[in-house]
Amino acid sequence: MKAFKIYQSEVKKSRLYARVGLAVFITSLVVGFNTDQDKLALGLLIGAYVPMAASIHFNFRAYKKMQKAVWLRNRDALLR
User: Fold this and answer.
1) pLDDT tens, 30-71?
2) Closest Cα to residue 21, out of 65, 66, 63, 53?
């Protein structure tokens, strides 16, 4: 059960970072098309990849925790 709770927290982190990355990406598109601040738009566009990479990292960690939670549950079920 503890592994599943860790899985849930990792999924929440992954979703948060994905949303932040998407928001920064959309902001860079809006700034790029509506103003002539190309350097700011490019900086935001490049900066959007940092939270996206963190989201992928937390997603892989969550996947590992889910595998562990399933394995532990199956092990406990077999030992009963």
Assistant:
1) 888 888 888 888 888 898 999 999 999 989 988 988 898 888
2) 53
CB atoms within 10 A of CB 33: 8
69 neighbors 3 (Cβ within 8 angstroms): yes
Which residue, among 42, 20, 23, has the nearest Cα to 32 in the 3D structure?
A: 42
Q: In angstroms, rounded to a whole number, what is the distance separating the alpha carbons of residues 50 and 54?
A: 6
Residue 17's pLDDT is: 93
**Dist CA 11 CA 5 (whole Å):** 10
Residue in the block written with tokens 């939270």? 51
